[in-house]
Structure to design on (390 residues):
């Protein structure tokens, strides 16, 4: 029952973080407490594929692959093959004993010519079977909540080295699992529409007479409408996100190549302000977070209660390394870091990949460095199958 309660809280509050403060905290309650940014439908930010999952969730400037729709659709223009399709699967939150929660991701692309491509993606988050209870612990029905995002994109090459992309997304979140109400509170599916904008630049060069390549990518994802689950409820932000990063790859010799990538990541969502404990309408520090989407994106750069120091804490980073032998077998590793006041997700990742003609298969594994086996992310695995066509 405890696990079910934890899970329901996870679904409804998304990535809620307990804001417990030490006894000797200052009046703002921020020096030693958490102030994580909370959004609805956080599944949109989960790394869906094994390759990026093995490289610390770095993907905005890694070499193009079938899952570029999630990270930066502009990369599709640099795929060598004309079209391709990939399918990823991940059991999710096994660290808290949930066995029927999983994430599926389907993506693909098609190049009309050397300068244009279309792409599509479907991310489906199955939240398992939930036995709802009343506040008094009495059974209140069973539901199978789920969420999904369906998107289509258009990419265009503007030079031999530079491309851009637009992706349009429909988001559907049914947390009540078709039961219609929980504890006599009516719930309806949350719906939002959003867009991504991505740019990608890659260029060859040489290091000690060895062929190499550097790349830069930027992607602003989930620029969209706010969402609520019940009529009259305050609408919450979806996870609008800024990701930028770079990559350097080098062919060590005829058979071996190595690439390293670094991503910086920030939610373009207002930071929760510090409110007066006796009057919630009074803001002690920070700025009002009840604003529109565009204003919220702009405000997210300067609204933290602790000013610049806290703004810097909101930047997450992902670092990954990838080794290829004969462009057929890959070994990968990475690290993801999030500040302890902003969620405290820190983990090491590893994985392998295999390519043979048109077929590819990838696997990744996540090792939390905080809480170890007690972390909800412990034992997270991802599997990806892919096919490309000339």
């Amino acid at each position: 029952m405890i696990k079910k309660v934890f899970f329901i809280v996870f679904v409804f509050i998304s990535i809620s973080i307990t804001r417990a403060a030490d006894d000797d905290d200052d009046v703002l309650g921020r020096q030693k407490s958490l102030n994580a940014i909370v959004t609805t439908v956080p599944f949109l930010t989960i790394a869906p594929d094994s390759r990026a999952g093995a490289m610390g969730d770095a993907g905005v400037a890694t070499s193009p692959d079938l899952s570029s729709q999630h990270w930066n659709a502009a990369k599709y223009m640099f795929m060598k093959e004309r079209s391709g399709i990939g399918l990823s699967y991940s059991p999710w939150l096994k660290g808290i004993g949930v066995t029927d929660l999983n994430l599926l991701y389907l993506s693909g692309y098609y190049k009309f010519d050397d300068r244009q491509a279309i792409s599509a993606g479907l991310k489906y988050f199955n939240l398992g079977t939930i036995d709802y209870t009343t506040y008094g612990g009495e059974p209140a029905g069973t539901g199978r909540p789920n969420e999904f995002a369906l998107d289509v994109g258009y990419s265009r090459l503007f030079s031999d080295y530079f491309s851009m992309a637009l992706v349009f997304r429909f988001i559907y979140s049914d947390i009540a699992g078709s039961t219609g109400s929980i504890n006599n509170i009516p719930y309806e599916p949350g719906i939002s529409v959003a867009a991504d904008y991505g740019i990608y630049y890659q260029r060859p060069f040489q290091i000690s007479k060895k062929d190499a390549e550097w790349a830069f990518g930027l992607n602003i994802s989930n620029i969209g409408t706010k969402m609520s689950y019940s009529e009259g409820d305050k609408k919450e932000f979806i996870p609008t996100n800024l990701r930028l990063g770079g990559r350097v790859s080098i062919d060590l010799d005829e058979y071996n190549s190595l690439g390293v990538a670094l991503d910086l990541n920030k939610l373009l969502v207002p930071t929760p302000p510090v409110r007066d404990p006796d009057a919630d309408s009074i803001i002690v520090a920070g700025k009002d977070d009840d604003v529109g989407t565009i204003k919220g994106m702009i405000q997210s750069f300067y609204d933290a209660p602790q000013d610049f120091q806290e703004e810097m804490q909101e930047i997450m980073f992902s670092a990954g390394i990838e080794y290829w032998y004969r462009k057929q077998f890959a070994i990968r590793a990475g690290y993801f870091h999030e500040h302890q006041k902003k969620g405290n997700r820190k983990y090491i990742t590893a994985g392998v990949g295999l390519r043979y003609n048109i077929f590819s298969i990838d696997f990744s594994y996540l090792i939390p460095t905080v809480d170890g086996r007690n972390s909800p992310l412990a034992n997270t695995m991802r599997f990806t199958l892919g096919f490309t066509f000339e």
In short: Residues 1-32 have pLDDT under 50 and may be disordered. The CA atoms of residues 49 and 191 lie 24 Å apart. The chain has one domain: 2-21+32-265+315-389. The longest helix spans residues 2-13.
